[in-house]
Automatic annotation (TrEMBL):
Residues 44-269 form the AB hydrolase-1 domain. Residues 1-19 form the signal peptide. Transmembrane segments: none annotated. This is Alpha/beta hydrolase. It comes from the Bacteria. GO terms for molecular function: hydrolase activity. Keywords: Hydrolase, Signal.
Length: 281
């Protein structure tokens, strides 16, 4: 698959980052921001949260601290950025594949991870067969594992029914507005609008077809850094879920000050300390 990925680099000539265009086998094209120079030592692929974007200030502050510690960051714009969702969960995994290939150029090692929905993606991304360049994963306040969240399943049930009705009516190529739940700053839980085709909506929100989170965790063999905010309102993303991972002496679980989003303010120091434990390949 990686041989088919087209990675077209374009310089933005800014002081802080470069831009990359990522194209995937299914034809989805997106962008990534590059902070630092990938391919020299250990680089991170950072996957942003639901409805967000890779360059929001909370993330840039974290990237700056990671760069200062010597780690480059590749931050792809995922299909779930903003309210217009452009690809399925399977296509999102292709985007991560492309970002990993970019981060690993010149033979560098890669750690894949992200925040909230990005943490979910880090769990589901090729758990049994990651690229050889991937030497670790990190999950910051992982969320979006619909198979584990009964309240979320109930909340998105009307949207799932709407999407399935559109498919039954032969309207699978149409986009529509769907109401889904989200968690923001100050742990605010709210109803979000998602504009997508039925197939895109269902790939993330239909618990019957969503990849099994527990099964994916059980297949991961790389060391994992897992951190949640002490005040994160999500009930299912804590130690009990972390312990579904196979035992690994270099895996770490932490509860940091803050909630679902502001825990990011406290993540850089323990994350960089953990990255330092990965050592040589």
């Amino acid at each position: 698959m990686l041989q088919r990925l087209l990675i077209l680099l374009a310089c933005l000539c800014t002081a802080t980052s470069w831009a990359a265009s990522l194209s995937t086998p299914s034809g989805l094209t997106t962008q990534a921001s590059l902070y630092g120079e990938p391919g020299k030592g250990l680089a991170l692929v950072f996957i942003h949260g639901k409805g967000s974007d890779p360059d929001k200030p909370d993330y840039q502050a974290l990237y700056a601290k990671l760069n200062a510690a010597g780690y480059a960051v590749v931050a792809p714009r995922m299909p779930w950025a903003g309210e217009h969702w452009t690809g399925t969960l399977a296509q999102a995994m292709e985007v991560v594949d492309a970002a990993v290939a970019l981060a690993a150029q010149s033979g560098g090692r890669v750690v894949v991870g992200g925040h909230s929905y990005g943490g979910m993606a880090a769990i589901l991304y090729r758990p049994a067969d990651p690229p050889t360049a991937v030497v670790g994963r990190f999950m910051l306040a992982p969320a979006g594992m619909i198979d584990l969240a009964r309240k979320s399943q109930d909340a998105v049930a009307p949207a799932v029914a709407q999407a399935k009705q559109m498919l039954a009516e032969g309207r699978g190529d149409e986009t529509a507005r769907f109401s889904v739940t989200n968690v923001g700053k100050a742990n605010r839980t709210f109803t979000d609008t998602l504009i997508a085709t039925p197939a895109v909506l269902l790939s993330y929100h239909d618990a019957a077809t969503f990849p099994g989170t527990h099964a994916a965790l059980g297949q991961i063999r790389q060391p994992v850094f897992w951190a949640v905010g002490e005040r994160d309102p999500l009930p299912y993303n804590r130690r009990a879920l972390f312990e579904r991972l196979p035992a690994n002496d270099r895996s770490t679980y932490l509860e940091l000050p803050g909630g679902h989003v502001d825990m990011l303010e406290h993540a850089a120091e323990p994350l960089t300390a953990w990255l330092g434990t990965l050592g040589a390949p």
